[in-house]
Amino acid sequence: MKTFQKYLLFVVLGLLAVAGYYFIQNLIPFDRRRPTLGESAPEFSLVDLGGGTVRLSDFRGKVVLLNFGASWCPPCKEEMPGFQNVFLKYRNKGFAVITVALDDSNPSSMVKELGIRFPVVMPDEKISGDYGNIVHIPVSFLIGKDGKIIKKVLGLYAEKDLRSDVEQALK
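The structure assignment produced for this chain is given below.
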């Protein structure tokens, strides 16, 4: 019986530690979490849905929208057509979009359904932490040509706002 009590105590303490970590993370406002505005965007190398490798450094010199979302998230799906529209308009002028799919399963059906033409990548164990411990989605980071964060958006990134931000960043 004592072994079971020790095991139960260990499990409860572990759960409390995890809950405490997430609670403390949420005490830091999103706009003050790292990376902050003006900081270099953390490098990553992730696998896209076709099996290719996508590295942030491959987009150096371009304005990049890095978006975190999931196919089960209604606001995430809602903002995708706007991302697609802005991407198609500005891709030849130096704008790129990368979406990190935080799905439990493969988001290929959503990509096909929405006709997404920009890279959708699967996360590794590191990227969410590198970008401020992503807990709530959608989250977007607009990265300037120099690789620095120029805007952070928690929640839906409206097409008109993205278009305006991209136009400004491409100047």
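Interim note for the steering committee: The mean pLDDT is 88. The first helix runs from residue 2 to 27.
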